[in-house]
Amino acid sequence: MCAASALAGDRERYARVFAACDEDSKGYLSREDFKVAVVMLFGYKPSKVEVDSVMASLQQKNSGVLLEEFLNLMTTKKSAQLYHSEIRQIFTAFDMQCRGFLTLEDFKKAFDSVAPKLPKRIIIEAFREVDQDSDGHVSFKEFESAMNYGQDEVSPLHFA
């Protein structure tokens, strides 16, 4: 299935969930309706902070989230989830010993396979930069932070 087709399918699913959660067909999701919709789509209840963030970001100041806003929010959330999953897969590929952290040797092997002509000093500098606590290991959190460096927030929604 191509990406455009998958996106259209996701938006249709989001619209069905919106309709199912729109109590009394009022045309918007209240705070509680929104929480239920997120549970239905992503399997967890959003925190008060997340819901407050969504409600504060609404274009109009009515009682809830309109369909188009909901579709955009859920599409952004899905993209963020996919990006997080990709970062996890890259980290796992680098972690050849399955230790849950990366060593300088892991970095060297990974870079050797994708950029064999890259000078070793650059790899060492990159490792030191990513190893924020200088313990000689790069945790997933440190790796993810490096991968996200410079990324602009696309949405006020910070889903885990």
Automatic annotation (TrEMBL):
<feature type="domain" description="EF-hand">
    <location>
        <begin position="82"/>
        <end position="117"/>
    </location>
</feature>
<keyword id="KW-0479">Metal-binding</keyword>
<dbReference type="InterPro" id="IPR002048">
    <property type="entry name" value="EF_hand_dom"/>
</dbReference>
<dbReference type="InterPro" id="IPR011992">
    <property type="entry name" value="EF-hand-dom_pair"/>
</dbReference>
<dbReference type="Pfam" id="PF13499">
    <property type="entry name" value="EF-hand_7"/>
</dbReference>
<dbReference type="InterPro" id="IPR018247">
    <property type="entry name" value="EF_Hand_1_Ca_BS"/>
</dbReference>
<keyword id="KW-0677">Repeat</keyword>
<dbReference type="GO" id="GO:0005509">
    <property type="term" value="F:calcium ion binding"/>
</dbReference>
<keyword id="KW-0106">Calcium</keyword>
<feature type="domain" description="EF-hand">
    <location>
        <begin position="9"/>
        <end position="44"/>
    </location>
</feature>
<feature type="domain" description="EF-hand">
    <location>
        <begin position="118"/>
        <end position="153"/>
    </location>
</feature>
<protein>
    <submittedName>
        <fullName>EF-hand calcium-binding domain-containing protein 11 isoform X3</fullName>
    </submittedName>
</protein>
<dbReference type="InterPro" id="IPR050145">
    <property type="entry name" value="Centrin_CML-like"/>
</dbReference>
